[in-house]
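User: Hi! I'm working on a homework problem where we have to compare a predicted structure to a textbook description. Could you give me the structure for the chain below?
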Amino acid sequence: MNKMIKTKFIAIGLSIFALAGLFSTNSYSFIDESEVETITEQEKTVVAKEVVEPVNLTDNDFDKSISKGVTLVDFWATWCGHCRRQAPIIKEVAVSFGDKATIGKLDVDKNRQTASEYHVRSIPTIIVFKDGKVVERLVGLQTKQILIDVVNRYL
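Assistant: Happy to help. Predicted structure tokens:
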């Protein structure tokens, strides 16, 4: 019992010590002022990039969305583990291209007609369209660089 009480006191003491460190202010700093500005600029860039999102496509707007320019579409489902791993990569690709190409996502469970029309049997499936025509199809989890290279091929 004594050992358990000592352990609790040590844990409480360490917690108080950690909290005191969070709220303390001291004049000693090991960060150069120029580094602080760099970090701030990087944070601003990250916030600006987060605004770009892949377009959520549906059966109703799919044909119109792919009709002009280069469009990469991620065919996915909420229950698919590889699709969930692909999602942040698709977002990064959308950020990379901005308005040069359309990067979209289509939930195959909610949009069965389009998934069937393009013979999507496995997910994730990524199809690249140029002016409404299929130009490339990738099945399975893909890296950011592969997706960027594929889209650049058709820009």
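For your comparison, note the following. The chain has two domains: 2-47, 53-154. The helical segments are 2-23, 33-50, 62-66, 81-97, 112-117, 144-154. Good luck with the assignment!
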